[in-house]
Specification:
single chain; 814 residues; mainly beta; Maltoporin, Chain A; 22-stranded antiparallel β-barrel; four-stranded mixed beta sheet; globular; disordered N terminus
């Protein structure tokens, strides 16, 4: 660790350590004012959990986020965690950023010529959690240790995030209403920006049906007209949950969320060198045929999203301490994306209009049956054991169609059938499932010491013959209790340690492999649907740490060190054969190609919190966390080489260096390439990150402030390459990305009302992204424009500026 990193840790700790100490859990307080301004759960955990970094893709207000827990684990796919909401596994499709205009010339099977308009439009993914109102979230648990993630087997290698929404547990009948109205401002000026208005309204009712049954029904409507012209959204959702304890034997619960979203975005990230609204706003003279006004009038990117997320559980209490619980969940998504380029853009002008339609159907399901035993013996001994069987799977169908030459351009993207060019259609239809079983045992002696062990087997039926074994174990010793009264200055001291394995698999259709790997092996024309790529990760981690508290736990510190190694295995499977000169699908598979690499992530995490004041009407806490990660490629397959193709930047990988190194040409004093060969330029992964904040309760007033920070990394400012007229990445484009940002500043006041039928009345004022301290020359240091895959990491090209928001809200409970 260098002196800058040491100073960063000291500054974070002195600035104010965290209100919650945990190596695996972040609980979002149900009264947190920050929920009124957050648009997604990713924003709620930004800066909250050590070892977890949240960054946007290209800064699009409708766009997705990157969430990486303890570094990147793969060279080829993504390192996104498994998300679970109220017991339902949330699906995510790798095809959401499918290139809508994929034809690169050639001819059809009939010999008809096809146009070449590949590399003209890159489609960034939209957010995956627009349907979930952050105000409905009760807690978020972030599972980082592989000793805990091993319970999720082939789904846990990138970590797990478990969200629980609010429940009613009292017999009181309540009606709650809330409304928030805000103004958005862009941090940049120009024709593409204006003041925006956003508002969200929620209504709900909860209560009891009898003595042991509780229900909660709510709905919200959110409209966001952002400070980016042409970028807006409207989302509506209806949620209901019901829980009952029918008797001492049977317990039952049901959760359902139905939502609809309509998202419009203007042009942001595109292929490097290609125009967009944001690039035209940056450099109006470089793209003379792509003015901002032309893009705003002639470009569409509309997403219609229908979603149903539902889960159910049943618990049967057999005898004292022994119960059997069955849970099931599903996530259904039907998403259509309409893209249009009119004659106000060079693409639309060149092809007399261009339209693309992407339709994605995703159905994710999960089920588990668990027998659990938990008992105390002779007061001091606690034993628990569980035996479970589960399954997860998804069905993913994607249809993509594009065309040009429109006689009726006023129909725009939805009038694709009116194009004169041939409609080129791509279809993907993939099913994936896995089965797992695990046994888990734990023993605790009077809170002095405890140990847990897990053994899990997973089987992915279609791709592997043998099951995969995932062992795990962890333990703790409470030093304070063992030492007794001899250490009065220390109120608590616990040492922990663990070991665990977890995996992750991603299925990649052959036609989409070029976005994930280099040197894709060629197959027969027309045989592509019979080949699939599988990216399989197996992570093995050791960790050790301690928690220590002082002054009756008013001051707490936690430290954890981890050493994680991930085997990154990639295979291309063949599920077909030629029969009577035709390709047909077969039940058996063969391996066309296989690649092995391995990655290591080492690091440590520091959490701290101060409870400065803890009186009845006055409470003040300070918190902070810091994490340090060293990422390196241990072994590398020779085909995973860097390069630049079709305007998509491709990062470099080298043994002994971190994953996704910046790759390009070093310039001499004249601003020219010093060598004919490109070289590794620098690291694009943050070495350290953290967050800090404070919460003050003063009678009815609550004040919340939260900062996030990252450092020790570079950003490839590809905007500068275009500005300089270069068609390559150079050392001149590499900039430091270190930043410190005030994410939110929130005020809430509980108004005392002496009216019986009003139980609670609050007003709140919240602000987001008030300032960012950074030396980066671009618009936003916290973007990763091609960051859907590790292969194109660390680039800023055509990103959106930061949006500042101020929101005023009111909530009532009757």
């Amino acid at each position: 660790m260098n002196h800058k990193q040491i100073i960063a840790v000291i500054c974070l700790l002195l600035a104010g350590p965290p209100a919650r100490i945990s190596a695996q859990v972040a609980v979002i307080d149900s009264l947190c004012v920050g929920k009124t301004i957050a648009m997604s759960p990713e924003e709620l955990i930004r800066g909250e959990v050590s070892g977890t970094r949240v960054s946007s893709i290209d800064g699009n207000p409708n766009g997705a986020f990157n969430v990486n827990i303890r570094g990147l684990n793969t060279l080829r796919g993504n390192s996104q965690p498994l998300w679970i909401v109220d017991g339902a596994v949330i699906g995510s499709s790798v095809h959401q950023n499918l290139n809508a205009f994929y034809l690169n010339g050639g001819s059809t099977a009939k010999g008809d010529a096809l146009p070449d308009y590949s590399g003209r439009s890159y489609t960034s993914p939209v957010g995956n959690f627009g349907w979930l109102n952050p105000a409905d979230i009760e807690s978020i648990e972030v599972i980082k240790d592989m000793s805990a993630a091993a319970l999720y087997g082939m789904s846990g290698a990138n970590g797990v995030i478990v969200i629980k929404t609010k429940r009613n547990s009292s017999n009181a009948h309540d009606i709650h209403l809330s409304s928030n109205v805000g103004v958005d401002f862009s941090t940049q000026k120009g024709d593409a920006f204006e003041a925006g208005i956003n508002h969200i309204h929620k209504a709900g009712i909860n209560g009891a049906a009898g003595n042991n049954s509780y229900y909660n029904i709510s709905g919200f409507l959110r409209q966001n007209n952002t400070a980016i012209k042409g970028t807006n959204s409207i989302v509506g959702s209806l949620a209901a949950n019901f829980e009952t304890m029918a008797n001492k034997v049977f317990m039952f619960g049901l959760n359902t969320n139905l939502s609809y979203g309509n998202y419009h975005s203007t042009g942001g990230t595109n292929y490097i060198g290609a125009p967009s609204t944001m690039m035209g706003s940056r450099y109006p003279d470089i793209f003379p045929y792509d003015k901002v006004t032309g893009w705003l009038e002639s470009y569409d990117d509309e997403v219609l999203d229908y979603r149903i997320v539902s889960s159910v559980w049943l618990q049967i209490n057999i005898i004292r301490g022994l119960h059997f619980k069955v849970t099931g969940g599903m996530d259904y998504q039907n998403q259509s994306r309409y893209i249009w380029f009119g004659d106000g853009t060079s693409f639309g002008k060149d092809f007399s209009g261009a339209a693309g339609i992407l339709n994605n159907f995703l159905f994710t399901y999960n089920a588990k049956g668990e027998l659990n035993y938990n008992r105390n013996f002779t007061v001091k001994h606690r034993f628990n054991a569980s035996l479970a069987f589960d399954l997860k799977g998804n069905m993913n169908k994607t249809n993509a169609m594009c065309g040009t030459d429109f006689d009726l351009p006023f129909l725009r993207g939805k009038g694709l059938s009116g194009s004169a060019s041939q409609h080129a259609i791509r279809k993907f239809d993939r099913n994936y499932n896995q089965w797992g079983a695990y046994a888990h045992v734990g023993y605790d002696f009077d809170s002095y010491a405890g140990i847990r062990a897990t053994a899990r087997f997973d089987k992915t039926g279609r791709f592997e013959n043998a099951p995969t074994f995932f062992p795990a174990a962890d333990a703790y010793v409470d030093i304070k209790r063992l030492a007794g009264a001899r250490t009065q200055t220390i109120s608590s001291l616990r040492i922990t340690g663990g070991f665990g394995k977890a995996g992750r698999e991603t299925i990649l259709p052959y036609e989409w492999l070029a976005n994930y790997i280099s040197d894709v092996p060629a197959v027969d024309i027309g045989a592509e649907p019979y080949f699939d790529g599988i990216n399989r990760l197996i992570s093995t981690e050791y960790n050790i740490g301690f928690n220590i508290g002082f002054i009756k736990d008013r001051v707490n510190f936690a430290f954890k060190y981890y050493d994680k190694k991930t085997d990154d295995n990639f295979k291309i499977y063949n599920f077909g054969k030629v029969l009577a000169d035709l390709w047909v699908r077969t039940a058996k598979w063969s391996v066309l190609e296989e690649r092995y690499s391995s990655i290591e992530n080492k690091g440590f995490e520091i959490d701290a919190d101060f409870r400065i004041v803890g009186r009845k009407h006055v409470a003040w806490t300070l918190w902070a966390n810091a994490s340090f990660n060293t990422n390196s490629v241990v072994s590398l397959h020779e085909k995973d080489a860097p390069g630049l193709a079709n305007g998509i930047y491709i990062a470099a990988n080298k043994e002994g260096e971190s994953v996704a190194q910046a790759y390009g040409y070093r310039l001499n004093g004249k601003g020219e390439p010093a060598s004919a060969d490109p070289d590794i330029l620098g690291n694009t992964l943050p070495k350290y990150a953290g967050g800090l904040g404070t919460t003050l309760h003063l009678y009815g007033l609550t004040v919340d402030a939260k900062f996030s920070a990252a450092g020790g990394f570079h950003i490839i400012n590809a905007n500068r390459a275009v500005e300089k007229g270069r068609d390559y990445i150079s050392s001149d484009d590499l900039e430091r990305g270190d930043y410190l940002r005030l994410d939110c500043l929130c005020f809430s006041y509980d108004i005392p009302v002496k009216v019986k039928w009003i139980k609670d009345f609050k007003v709140n004022l919240a602000a987001r992204n008030l300032f960012t301290i950074s030396g980066y020359g671009g618009w936003n240091p916290d973007v990763n424009c091609f960051g859907v895959t590790t292969r194109s990491n660390g680039v800023d090209y055509g990103s959106f500026p930061l949006i500042r928001s101020v929101i005023l809200g009111v909530s009532l409970k009757f």
